[in-house]
Write a structure and sequence with these properties.
Elements (H helix, E strand, L loop, with lengths): L4 E10 L2 E11 L3 E6 L6 H8 L7 E6 L14 E4 L11 H11 L5 H9 L15 H13 L5 E5 L7 H16 L3 E6 L11 E6 L2 E7 H9 L2 E5 L3 H10 L3 E6 L2 E5 L3 H10 L6 E4 L4 H9 L3 H6 L3 H9 L1
Parallel strand pairs: 3-7, 3-8, 5-6, 6-7
Antiparallel strand pairs: 1-2, 1-4, 8-9, 10-12, 10-13, 11-12
The structure holds adenosine-5'-triphosphate.
Pfam family, one: ABC_tran
GO molecular function: ATP binding; ATP hydrolysis activity
Protein name: ATP-binding cassette domain-containing protein
């Protein structure tokens, strides 16, 4: 695939741990692909294999159709952020990037360009050792952008960032994808990917659990759900449940209702004298969609540490 990243049947074992167990997916140009799964699901290992830092027991990973290690000018093909802490602390931000640029035959003009792009122009001559975590992440992203590559792969870029930093990265990733780049960004928190991921590759225990567009995922989960705001949630729940709806509390004065149309809900509540203030189609967060998506995946529940709950439920 031109410019994208392909991962095919990757398997990797570390001692007793099967870190990758048939991991396969593609990262297409022009969109942000979120790579999500609980701690230990195999995200970092996959990225290390893509970069040729770990050798898979089976399978292959390609960048723009070729193994990363065979690329003549890798930074021009794939930019990556694996560990933002991996810096020479005594070097200034600018010198760090100049050194990288030199090793890859990139012009120094790119250094000033990417420093501006990540908002570090004013800190360029400060030592990276004194940088906050957020500034280190920015510097790591600057390094990933140095070769102006068509593909980017960022491991947990939101880690440790304040809300402003998170907003900034989201906007940057969106603009990079809008410019036609393939962008893979990992996170163990679905909420971090809210509003930025166009596509999701959800992983658990070394393999893909779901590979889906975000819009279709959210639409599918939201379908047929109505949020009802009411000052009498208990009465409303009783009336609507009696009419065959599935009703869940979604706040002190709101219910999420499935199985009845908006008109039917209004008719039942009005007919039974239950007051309500507002009806709206349910807005699904990525977090909710993620839980829904993984609800039936036993391996996932286990990964999320809910084995105890399952056991309790089974014993009921
Ligand atoms: N070098 C290694 N030696 C031994 N085990 C490893 C090594 N690298 C990864 N693992 C194990 O492989 C599994 C997958 O780890 P990996 O770091 O790829 O997961 P992850 O999805 O990136 O998790 P996190 O969100 O915590 O970064 C884990 O059980 C981890 O302990």
């Amino acid at each position: 695939m031109d410019g994208g990243i392909e991962v095919e049947g990757l398997r990797k074992r570390f001692g007793a741990t099967q870190a990758l167990d048939g991991m396969s997916f593609v990262v297409r140009p022009g969109r942000v692909t979120g790579f999500v799964g609980p701690n230990g699901a195999g995200k970092s290992t996959t990225m290390r294999v893509v970069l040729g830092l770990d050798r898979p027991d089976a399978g292959r990973a390609l960048v723009g159709g070729q193994p990363y290690r065979s690329l003549a000018e890798p930074l021009r093909r794939l930019g990556s952020l694996l560990d933002a802490g991996a810096l020479q602390p005594s070097r200034t931000a600018r010198n760090h990037l100049l050194w990288l640029a030199q090793t890859q035959g990139l012009p120094p003009s790119r250094v000033d360009h990417v420093l501006g792009q990540v908002g570090l122009a004013d800190a360029a001559r400060r030592r990276a050792g004194g940088f906050s975590l957020g500034m280190r992440q920015r510097l790591g992203i600057a390094a990933a952008l140095l070769g102006d590559p068509p593909a980017l792969m960022l491991d947990e870029p939101f880690n440790g960032l304040d809300p402003e930093g998170i907003r900034w990265i989201r906007a940057l990733l969106t603009s990079l994808a809008a410019a036609g780049r393939a962008v893979l960004v990992s996170s163990h928190l679905m909420s971090e990917l809210e509003g930025v991921a166009d596509h999701l590759v959800v992983v658990g225990r070394g393999r893909v659990v779901a590979d889906t567009g975000v819009r279709e995922l959210l639409d599918g989960v939201a379908a047929g759900r109505v949020t009802v705001r009411t000052a009498a949630p208990s009465a409303a729940e009783e009336v609507l449940a009696r009419a065959g709806a599935e009703v869940r509390s979604s706040g002190p004065d709101s219910l999420t209702v499935t199985g009845l149309t908006g008109e039917a809900i209004v008719a039942r509540l009005t007919g039974n004298g239950v007051p309500f203030a507002e009806l709206s189609s349910h807005r699904v967060t990525l977090e909710e969609a993620y839980l829904e998506l993984t609800r039936d995946a036993a391996q996932f529940r286990a990964s999320l540490g809910q084995e105890d709950q399952e056991t309790r439920e089974a014993g009921r």
